[in-house]
UniProtKB/TrEMBL annotation:
It is a multi-pass membrane protein. It comes from Celeribacter halophilus. Its main location: membrane. It is found in: Cell membrane. Belongs to the binding-protein-dependent transport system permease family. LivHM subfamily. The chain crosses the membrane at residues 12-38, 58-82, 94-112, 139-159, 187-211, 223-249, 287-303. Keywords: Amino-acid transport, Cell membrane, Membrane, Transmembrane, Transmembrane helix, Transport. The keyword Transport applies. The lineage of its organism: Bacteria, Pseudomonadati, Pseudomonadota, Alphaproteobacteria, Rhodobacterales. It comes from the Bacteria. This is Amino acid/amide ABC transporter membrane protein 1, HAAT family (TC 3.A.1.4.-). GO terms for biological process: amino acid transport. GO terms for molecular function: transmembrane transporter activity. The keyword Transferase does not apply.
Length: 313
């Protein structure tokens, strides 16, 4: 029972981390219709900026300044790169942002090297929140989860309860009308892209101290972030949260499971046949854990192409 509880906790925290990264991508696509393949690179930049700043400013100021720096990078990318290719469609955006992700990864390797850097937790946060069966559960995991939940609430309130949110949402559907009312629509979109990049940077600054900060971290998480956005529904913040938790918890439970399809077939008297056939029928769930998110995405796309909470066209 304790093992299941730990798996649920770890899955929930991992899911909330996925949301922290995918929230910015969801915001950017939902507001601007831009598919940013380099979004996970902003997550990586946040971790490296925080690592660089930590010896100079301390941990707390570093995780505040790092997202601001990433926001600056995002604004420059939107203003001088994406703005010129946006009118040519998603294919051009994907190609340009894919190239940008490669450039950022290579620059990180040139500056910091090809190996992981020593970005550590501060001593005041490196303690156990509680213990179960003699196993300590790190407080920092709960800290990351709390930041993710706070991020979700802040984005929701910003988009639904403030004048800024009204202007941003209006600029998506009626840009000419918003411009006629005196608002600078390109500036609004540039700000949205910058905020989306900052959210990814914050995720990197916070998670980089707990997980490994290395030049491959964007690649390791980037594909999963796109899976989350597709499963949740393109542009749906609630869908991104639901999909993140679904994938995080499912993956965590699967990693610790020894379940096999052959065991299920034993209940209907076909266990011997399953053992003879072998292959997928005798593979343990833990061996398939890495493929489960993609299976979930495939299932969602077949049954509900718009995603869990996406708007049907």
């Amino acid at each position: 029972m304790d093992q299941i509880l730990f798996a649920l906790l770890n899955g929930t925290i991992y899911g909330l981390l996925l949301f922290m990264v995918s929230a910015g991508l969801t915001l950017i696509f939902g507001m601007m219709g831009v598919l940013n393949f380099a979004h996970a690179s902003f997550y990586m930049l946040g971790a490296y900026f925080a690592y660089t700043l930590q010896p100079l400013t301390g941990f707390w100021l570093a995780i505040i300044l790092a997202p601001i720096l990433v926001m600056g990078v995002g604004i420059l990318v939107e203003r001088f790169i994406l703005r010129h290719v946006h009118e040519h469609g998603h294919a051009h955006e994907l190609l340009v942002t894919f190239g940008l992700s490669v450039v950022i990864a290579e620059m990180i390797k040139m500056v910091y090297g090809k190996f992981a850097v020593d970005y550590r937790l501060p001593a005041e946060l490196n303690f156990a929140a509680f213990s179960l069966s003699g196993i300590d559960y790190p407080f920092y995991r709960l800290f990351m989860g709390g930041i993710a939940i706070g991020m979700f609430i802040a984005i929701y309130l910003l988009l639904t309860k403030t004048r800024v949110g009204i202007v941003v949402r209006s600029a998506i559907y009626r840009p000419q009308m918003v411009e006629a009312l005196g608002h600078n629509v390109p500036m609004v979109f540039m700000g949205v892209f910058g905020i989306g990049a900052a959210l990814a940077g914050l995720a990197g600054a916070v998670a980089g101290a707990f997980y490994t900060t290395n030049p491959n971290m964007a690649l390791e998480l980037g594909v999963m972030v796109f899976v989350v956005v597709v499963v949740g529904g393109l542009g749906s913040m609630g869908g991104a949260m639901a999909a993140s938790l679904l994938i995080g918890i499912t993956n965590s439970l699967a990693v610790g499971s020894d379940f096999r399809l052959a065991d299920l077939m034993t209940w209907v008297g076909m266990g011997g046949f399953a053992e003879e056939v072998g292959g997928l029928l005798t593979m343990r769930m833990s061996s398939l854990a890495a493929t489960l998110p993609f299976f979930i995405m495939l299932l969602v796309l077949v049954l509900r192409p718009s995603g869990l909470m996406g708007e049907k066209e």
